[in-house]
Amino acid sequence: MIKKYQEDFRQRPGTDPAVLSALDAIAAGMSGAQARGQQLWRQPQFEQSREKPAPLAHRPLVYVVTDNACASACLDALDLWKAMGAVHVGRQTSADTVYMDIRTVALPSGLSELSFPMKVYRDRRRGHNEPVTPKHLFPGDTSNVAPLKDWLARLHRGKP
Known about the structure:
This protein is an alpha/beta fold and 160 residues long. Helix content is 36%, strand content 16%. The chain has two domains: 1-49, no CATH class; 53-160, no CATH class. Helix 1 (2-11) runs antiparallel to helix 2 (17-35).
């Protein structure tokens, strides 16, 4: 599947060279693991960066607002921003599994499809299918911007 992605992206005009480079590295790593008889390949830079980011000494206060539409990449970003000291506010998020990049293939009969993940998180702090509840829960609809902005201003002043 990665080799197909490589072909597709190479044929698209204006594809970022960094994307092509990443696909090349992934394809080489997976092919090498397969040639060695290994069932899994781990991307080296992720193996080396498992530690929690160090908090910054002086950082501005950052609020991250979520609602139940926050899932997948949004949750990954939320995990990172919270680890760097952002304050999570808004509504409870959706949830995701530790499996990602789901590939779906039609079975030869055409009667059904088979779906399976191409990647899996290891040692993720947030649990499997676990939503994230904000430190400060907004009582209204986060898509209604005016009340949300007023609430954030009050929260920032210490009077939510």
